[in-house]
Write a structure and sequence with these properties.
- Helix content is about 35%, strand content about 30%.
- With about 210 residues, it is α+β, with helices and mostly antiparallel strands.
- It has 2 domains: about 60 residues; about 140 residues, Nucleoside Triphosphate Pyrophosphohydrolase.
- Strands 1, 2, 3, 4, 5, 6, 7 and 8 form an 8-stranded mixed beta sheet that branches.
- Helix 1 runs antiparallel to helix 2.
- The longest helix is centred in the first third of the chain and has 21 residues.
């Protein structure tokens, strides 16, 4: 982490300590103190970024219990040596995927996200990598994210109009469009190509 981003590391640590304190503490006065520490950590993020305090609290202070990373799944789908990317509403392109819902497994979530964003039915073939997001993607978020890349195979389906994507297309490694870098970058796309071309692939992990 860059020196000028140490404030974010401190804010995240304060939030984590406060959240654990709120979960385990029984004394009402200490709980008030932990709640104020949590508020200060959110105010730090708001002050140093362009994100509203309400949005920061929604993303940063909405969990209860011991703090753990959020899980994000991304599907690598290939056809004729090209990878499928969905066209997002903001004009960038990404591997289909998103946050893992609490009521489904990682595999089930991957299948659901591809269906929602690309309209395709898939089966998961293997895990390509499990990554710590802040080691690979910018900007750094105010919460930890575990990214799981999976190679998937299409079994049917067709694109369905939705609020997140406007379509999908397949791209070769040398013809990648403008990527949603916060979700997936060229290095991660290249990793997926390497996995696809390998008969035997051992999942990478941070």
């Amino acid at each position: 982490m860059e020196k000028n981003e140490k404030w974010l590391q401190w804010a995240v640590e304060l939030q984590s300590l406060a959240q654990a304190g709120l979960f385990y503490c029984k004394d009402k006065y200490d709980m008030e103190r932990y709640e104020r520490i949590r508020e200060i950590s959110a105010e730090m993020i708001c002050y140093k970024s362009d994100i509203s305090l309400e949005k920061v609290k929604d993303l940063f202070c909405g969990d209860a219990g011991y703090q753990t990373p959020k899980i994000d799944t991304r599907a690598a789908i290939f056809k004729d040596e090209k990878i499928l990317l969905v066209h997002e509403a903001n004009g960038t392109w990404a591997l289909p995927g998103g946050w893992v819902d609490v009521n489904v497994s990682v595999e089930e979530n991957m299948i659901k996200e591809v269906k929602e964003e690309a309209g395709l039915d898939v089966k998961v073939k293997r895990i390509i990598a499990v990554q710590d997001r802040e080691k690979h993607n910018l900007p750094i978020y105010a919460y930890k994210v575990c990214k799981i890349f999976m190679q998937c195979e299409v079994t049917g389906g067709e694109f369905i109009s939705n609020i997140e994507t406007t379509g999908f297309s397949y791209f070769g490694i040398d013809e990648l469009p403008c990527l949603a870098e916060e979700k997936n970058n060229r290095e991660q796309i290249e990793m997926c190509f390497q996995a696809m071309r390998s008969k035997v692939w051992e999942a990478l992990y941070d």
